Amino acid sequence: MLPWRWDGAPTTLMSRAVDETGYVQPTYAAFQAARGMGADFHFNPIRAWRVAQDGLVTFVANPEAA
Hints:
Blueprint: E1 11-15, H1 28-35, E2 47-51, E3 57-60
Antiparallel strand pairs: 1-2, 2-3
């Protein structure tokens, strides 16, 4: 697999972890469906960061809403 190279266009990077038991971080929607709104115990959905054209990186709480 080739490494990802940023071409300067706005993009969203997402990280998803898998633990030793095979558990995979859920999407935000799957997490919300399983735990409900306002759940913060083991809040572990996939994390996302938005990279702007100028290189500014910001955290995205719910990438599926954008």
